[in-house]
Every structure is written in C-alpha cells, then in structure tokens.
Fold each of these.
Amino acid sequence: MSEFLLIRRAGQMLTLRGPNEPRRGPALEELGIITGGAILIRDGVIAAAGPASEVEALEDARGAREIDAAGRMVMPGFVDSHTHLVHGAPRLLDYEMRLRGADYHEIAQAGGGIQSTVRSVRAAAPEDLEAQAHRALRDFARHGTTTLEAKSGYGLDETAEFKMLVVLAALDGWPLDIVPTYLGAHVVPPEFADKPDAYVDWMCTEMLPRIRQRRRAIFADVYCDRGAFTLQQSRRYLEAARTAGLGLKVHAEQFTHTGAAQLAAELGATSADHLEQADENDAAALAAAPTIATLLPGSVFHLGLDRYAPARMLIDRGAAVALATDFNPGTSPTCSMPMILSLACAHMRMSPAEAISAATINGAHAVGRADHVGSIEIGKQADILIVNAADYREPPYYFGVNLIAMTIKRGAILYEQASVADDRAQERAADG
Ligand code: NIG
Ligand code: FE
C-alpha cells in the first residue's frame, strides 16, 4: 500500500519549476512561486504540487498524513554541489595563524595546510572519519541541505583515497544523498614531492581506471592553481578521467588565474568551481558551455579576503551559476547554505531569487541529479524545507540565523526545529 503525505498551508511555495536545463540570465529570477500551496507526496516522491484547492481535492489527499506549514515558506532542499565532507579534524592552528597574518606558505611550513589534513586522514580509522562526516551531515540537514557532493582528496595514495570513498559510500543515504567525487589531483603527495608529473601519470594510468572499475566516484576533480597542478597537468588528468567515464569538475581560478575555467568549458566539464579570479573571457567561455559556474563565497569570507567571484558578470554574460559551501577544514568550515545565500547577496550582488535558484536547481544540475532533485515538481524526490519566513528574501536577509523549521527528505521528517522554552508563555497558558 502506498503511503501518502500532504504538506498543507504553505505560504509562499517556491517550486523552482521550469524547463529541465540549468537556469541562466533572467531565468535565475524565476522561483515559480505559488501562494497558498500544498504538496502531495506518495512513497517519498512528489505526486502533486500546486494551489491548495487543487491538491487537497485529490482523492489520495484524503486520509493522507499531514504536515501543517502554517503559512510558512516551503521550498526544495538545498543541493550543495561542492564539499570536502570527509576530513577528520578541523585546522584550528591554521586559523589562528592566518588571523595573526601568516600566509598560506608559512602555514604549510609550520606543518599546516592541505598536507596536514592528508597526514591525519591517512592515519585515521575509517570509523573515525565516518563519525566526523556523520556529525557534519546532521549539521547540513539542520541547515536545509538534502543532497550534497563530497570529494576525496585528503588521502592521495590508493589506500587512503579508497578509504575516503568507501566512507562516502557508507554514508550515502544516511540521511542525505551523497554524490562522490575523486579529487586525487588536490595536491602532490609527499612521496611524489619533486615529481608532480609522475603523480599525474600514476593517477591517469593506475588510479582513474581503478576508480572506474570499483565504481567509487561519479566525478573527478582537479585543483588547478599555484602550489597544486598546472594547466597542462590538469588537462591530462581531466582527459583521462573522461576516458574513465567520470564527469568532470575543476577547482578553477581560485587564487591565481590559470586558464582552468576555459579548459573546463572546452572539455564540457559539469562544473568550474571558485572562479574568484575569472575574467570576461572566462565568463564568455562558460556562457557558451554546458559547464556550471559554481561560486563558493564561504572560502573568500573565511579567509578574510575581499575578492569574491564576479557573479554579476557571469550571470549577465549568460553563465549558469550555482552556489555551494565548499565545506572543508582549511578555507570554508561551514555547512550552512543559508549563510552562503547571505554572502552571495551582500558580496556578489546576486539577488535573493538568483541565489535561491543557484543553491537548488542549478546545484542539482552541477551534480547531475536535476532529474530527481532541486525543484518541487511531480516525479521528483520529496526533498522539501519548511522555512520560518513569510518571504523568500528573508533567508539571505537574516544572515547567520538558521530559519529552517523542518527538513524533509524523501517524504520523511529529518529535522524539526526545537522550540525555545518560554516561562511567561507557560504562565499565560496556565492563567488562561
Ligand atoms: O576548495 N582549494 C583547494 N581546496 C579547498 C581547500 C582545502 C583545504 O584547505 O583543506 C578549497 O578551498
Ligand atoms: Fe574545494
């Protein structure tokens, strides 16, 4: 017997419905708002969504279990398309050193940076990595994320990369959907310290075919930047990844301009991420490509930098922009997509509507899941948020405040905000 759930009395219901393609230009502004909406869910899948009068009149709506949105905003769950979910410990020493003025190089010399996370992930038991990631997943759920991409890249050798990918596979669905990415090309590991080309060779000829064989990743990602991989090395790796049947993602134009965004566009990568240093030519190339421009303002904010990605230029040129947290211990330790919306609006001049599209439907395109998630449409997974807001502009406006009242995943309540004890309210109730 099918199980029916009815979400009633939505105030603003942001459906994000529309053609099944990444949103660009003015389409990013279209949230498909229905005022006074309802959603009927059958076995975790959206069976109907529209004005309450229509949905509640359906035969299957009678006798369905009900969730009362009580006039609050209802929207699709966030799709966070760029995270380094599994990483063990936070890097609090790096953080303090940076606040005292140390730069990236000095931090690495003092034993910090990505290499320090590599050392600790290599030494960690899988159970401990799983426990860290699972704590983070609960925070993601509290902040409204229902699907996320997650990268390896802190193991780098075969054993530790597969350890990370196996942890991701074990966590998939508990409780969020995880799209796994192999990020072998994050930095050059110590055992290849002075022979980066040999490491790229090894990944292309040994690792990528094994990733394919063991079906441990959907995407491959490379960090193309100073101190990581060159444009030539990135091209070689991405071409090998494509041959291995993986989708392509690129950390592009983060600290230095390398040409990686145009390489991503040329290769038809699924996304080019970061783009803080992107210029007009990069914007034109991304606008002409299927490649999603994924912006990560959390890393700029946390590093205390002031050069955010040129979102306005990218959008105005026609690039399909997504927003993600880049959750990682070095540059962006946040699980909060609402905070990312605030940063995108304040610092990149995205409109609240553009930011919401970028964090939902375009995020879904950036992980290849737009057929299943990212909007409230018939046939999609019932990944839905009830938000303590009357208007879609409130989540970015109330920065640093978590307005998520309820996170629903495949029609099941994952998270429900607790109430605040209020003695006077109790007294009043007792008096009345
Ligand atoms: O996306 N830029 C490269 N990778 C991460 C940082 C990872 C780390 O510092 O641990 C990023 O910002
Ligand atoms: Fe990243």
Amino acid sequence: MLTRALTTTRRSDFALLVREGLSRPSQKELPSKFFYDEIGSALFDQICLLPEYGLTRAEERLLSRHAAEIVQNLPQPVAVAELGSGTGKKTRLLLEALCRRHAVSYYPIEISPSALATCERELKDIRCISIVGLEREYLDGLLEVAARRREGQHLLVLFLGSTIGKFEGEASAHFLRQLRGILWEGDVLLLGADLEKPVDILLAAYDDSLGVTAAFNLNLLARINRELGANFDVRQFAHQVIFNQQTRSIEMHLRSLSDQTVTIPGADLVVKLARGETIWTESCHKYSFDELRTMANESGFRPAGIWLDPAWPFAENLWVAV
Ligand code: AVI
C-alpha cells in the first residue's frame, strides 16, 4: 500500500482570517475550520464519545448497517475523495465494503495536518487501498483528485458528519454547485446530514455537562495565543450555545466576561471586546427532508438513496451528479 501526503501549509491564511473576523464592527467571527489543530482534533474525538452528542454514533450505525447496500449503488470503478479526513472508523466501513469489488485509491482532503495523520494511521492497514492525503481546502483538493482520475474512473465524494451544516444559508447551495462543477455526470456524493430534532436535545449536544465542547470552542482562542502570539485570557470567555430558529442552526459563540483588550501580534491587531459581546465561532445547520431534496436538485444532483437512523435523526444521502 502506498501512503503519501501532499502538503501546502498556508499559515498566513490563519492570521488573515483571524484579523478579518475580529476587526468586524458588528458581530465578530472566527472560522470554525480553525478548531482542528492537534488539541482541537483530540477534543473533537472526545465530543464524538459524549452521551449528549449522538451525531457521530448515528452515522457510524448507518454505515455499519448499510455500507454494502450503499456500495451496490455506486458506479465502478470509483476512486474515493473525502472532504475532511473524518474519523477513520466511519470511512473504514465504506472502504472495506468497496474493497470487496476492486482496489481503491482514497484521497482524504483536510487542512489540519494532525487530522490527516490520524486518518492515515487509522486506515493504513486496509490492504487494498492506496492513500494519498491532500492538505488542502476541500474544493482545491477535489480539483486535484479529479485531475488525477483515470479514463473511465468515477469519483465517490464523501462529505460525512454533517459538515455541510457549517455553511450558512445560500453558502451551502453555492458550495454544492461548485463541488458538482468538478464532477462528471454519474459521479456520486455521499452526504451525511443531521436532521431537525427537539431544541433541548440539540442544546445539550453542543453544551455537554463535562464541558468538552466548551474546551473545544475555547481552544480556538488558546490556538491564537500559541500560533499568533496573542494574549487572550481564556478564562475571561464563556462557551455559549443558542439555537437560531430562523436559520434552523445551532450557533456556538465565545462570550466575553469583561471589558477587555487583546493584542494579536501575528495578525497585527488589537481587539477591544465589551462585557457580554460574543465572537461567533460555528454554525451547525439541522436539515429537513424537503430541504435536502431541494438542495440536491438545485445543485445538479439526483437523490438516489437515503438511509436514516431511528435513534438519532440523521440522514446518509446518496446523490448522483446529473
Ligand atoms: C464537524 N461538525 C459537523 C460538528 C457539528 O456537529 O456541527 C462540529 C461540532 N461542533 C461542536 N460539536 C461538534
């Protein structure tokens, strides 16, 4: 098995986006993609084990029950590109089912080198796959995978874990249309989407009693301290979770507990935060069936299969590019 990682480190992106998000005159923001440094990735693995956070276990159940059936619905031969390297556990179920048909090239695409390394470590024992990790933004990585495909080879794109939910409103449709633009007719997208559920269940899932999600959120400030030399006093911030009824999304924020001034030399920035002011760090949209169908149709896909978890409303969607 060949394992190799292609890396382009864009460290300055972090400084630029921190500067942009924290200089806003109204709602300050930090992009959720920066949660996943080594500590953040380890905390996210813990989140997936929490009793309150059923999302990952729901998707694991779906893939362990239905991987063979999902694979039966795929064109062949296929190469597999995964947006976000995910937990090796879920991907393994699919790759092993695929390997019963033919050897597979697997391309995890991920901006976090530590997440990419974990994925390779977890999956390298599967005999019939070759792994080429791409340390890239999703669509840049997918373009590269598409350029490497062989004549007649289809692509299966995995976008698991409801990561699509981080795109707000029109941004998700825009992203899916761009993704579709890279694919050929007959290529397939396997899209994990967390479904609407009672608000109390959602709030507990993102504000767990052990404080793991709070640590995951606060680590973003600690990361800015470590990498950009900032002086955030992390104890002067609180994890805050709300459900936005209008957008049907969980929002995570970091609420300032005092009036404070923070210096971020690596982003050439001094930020003033008022007591009670928040930095918006993540959105996690929750889907209805109608919405998923409309999204597929409007972005150039035909829904070809849907698998649902009975215990935690979650949908694994197979969409074919048309
Ligand atoms: C990765 N993403 C889909 C997770 C979610 O549920 O939206 C991230 C997460 N944030 C807090 N808990 C989990």
